[in-house]
Description:
Two copies of one chain form a homodimer.
Chain A: E1 2-6, H1 13-26, E2 31-36, H2 38-46, E3 55-59, H3 70-76, H4 81-91, E4 95-100, H5 104-115, E5 125-131, E6 137-141, H6 151-169, E7 175-180, H7 190-200, E8 205-211, E9 222-224, H8 227-255, H9 259-274, E10 284-287, E11 293-295, H10 304-318, H11 320-332
Parallel strand pairs in A: 1-2, 1-4, 2-3, 4-11, 6-9, 7-8, 7-9
Antiparallel strand pairs in A: 5-6, 5-10, 10-11
Helix pairs in contact in A: 1-10, 3-5, 4-5, 6-7, 6-11, 8-9
Amino acid sequence: MKIIVDVFSGDDPKALIRGTAAALNVYPDVRVVMPGDPTYLERELATCDYDASRLEILPASEVIGNDESPTMAIRQKRDSSLVRGASLLRSDPEAGGMISAGSTGAILCCGIFVVGRLRGIDRPALAPVLPTVDGGSVCLIDCGANADCRSEYLAQFALLGTSLMRTLCKVENPRVALVNVGVEGHKGNMLTSQTASVLAEMPVNFVGNMEARDALSGKYDVLVCDGFVGNVLLKSIEGTAANVVAEMSEVLRRKLPGSENSELIADAAREVMRSYDYNSYGGAYLLGCRKPIEKIHGAANERTIPYAVGQMRSMILAGLTDSIAEQLESMSRKPGDEK
Amino acid sequence: MKIIVDVFSGDDPKALIRGTAAALNVYPDVRVVMPGDPTYLERELATCDYDASRLEILPASEVIGNDESPTMAIRQKRDSSLVRGASLLRSDPEAGGMISAGSTGAILCCGIFVVGRLRGIDRPALAPVLPTVDGGSVCLIDCGANADCRSEYLAQFALLGTSLMRTLCKVENPRVALVNVGVEGHKGNMLTSQTASVLAEMPVNFVGNMEARDALSGKYDVLVCDGFVGNVLLKSIEGTAANVVAEMSEVLRRKLPGSENSELIADAAREVMRSYDYNSYGGAYLLGCRKPIEKIHGAANERTIPYAVGQMRSMILAGLTDSIAEQLESMSRKPGDEK
């Protein structure tokens, strides 16, 4: 299978190039296309040990920066690594998916305007799959692609998240919850009140409202919210985890002095932080486009790519996009129609 | 000074009654009025050791439950502990403030319809003051009173939060930040984009957008957002802290076996959790009403009350409401008017 890896949209292209070479060594059935400056890419790749026959360079002279207006950038920088990659994803039947370290906005625009949306999807959404405290996973959708949403969008997110958890995490009947300020039915804002009634009519396993404190509890498989709320939720989890690990380590170093203890405490801190650190578990999926796109952190490092490639590979093998399309299709059928 | 304490709206009135008796022992200059069932109160208070001359019972036969519709409950349960307390707060010049363990909605309705709003405030907001990682404090406003907001409301929240941090935490020029999905100016949803420009014109120290991961960083003194986002932010901090402390403790017990270590680890966990546990630092302030109201958790316990009474006492001594009213007044003056 062919996966497009856009390394230039990230902060450290060199690290992502090394990571891609490493990924090729991990997955012998994967071929990579890398859009970008050939001279730069060849120079960096020359320092890596990998199977060059499975890596193809797609010349692209420009890079879209994090601070650029996405819509403008997509229109003006036709020869950027991101737009070139997205165009190939759209046109090449062999291209199964794309990984990019670009900005959410630019990737979203490419997904909508270059790759194209699936029929029945108004707004593609960004969905990370996070580890839960009980060792499972939960999909948070949307986590930043759509800051302003309507209830129909959230209903579509529920469907996209359900398909993701079915295909990627093999959860048979994902429990979908609506991120809200309380579990009681009457709580929430205008958007959640409207969405709750729409979700109740959807062919998803809607279990009701949930509170942010239970996001990683393992009680839910898909958390539905608008992209603003999802982003706040994700970043507060990330920030709080870092704070608490640091505070706990400091208190313990005081209670358990000695360099040996301090090393064990540092090990424990690293072990706990691993599940709260995006770089260690790849990225977030842009769902709802004709082909899967995975967004990795702009600050993604060498370790990120093999993990992200592995995730994209499973999504392609699982036929995620087709299964989403099928469900949208079956939903659009009027009740009573033949299946 | 006189403080009204509504213990019946909480899950465990008996614990809150004991806590109130304890608070009276801590603050000799405080008098308490307790609305509720006299027989019940007298029976419980008889078991407490406190100065009965500073506690007055205000008969009230009803209790407003957590699951009742706030507006309906306020209208129908005129003889509830919450409504009776709020009415006294409104009518008695000696009553400086009220503490209640009731639901946010019921307390908000009482604040608006019984106690009354300050001139220039459209929506009172709920604002907890949270400890930051650098040992300071930050005010999160709104954290749940107003799920749907307009930019003018958020601008008023900025002013209320600024006054709170000035009077309660003695921060001279509180740094006000807008909770957003990124620090860049162009990021956000419709509400934050509109609010950012309004805040820039306000007589507050607006330092721009902030990301949820930096909420407790100590970089900001006042975090402004709508009540839905604030509630999600607060609860995800609370939930993540509990998860991370538990995970870190488990990993360390594995790395540092032995009952002695396990006790030290448990101590450290408790020490860290203290700053993430509401009960240990009282409640949230309902700001924007004619007199201060403090909402404590429904699950508040005996320890909560002395802390909450201490906070309310400082707010009354600092003349919070008057100082807010003055600022609103000075803002409403047209530029060029005589001060």
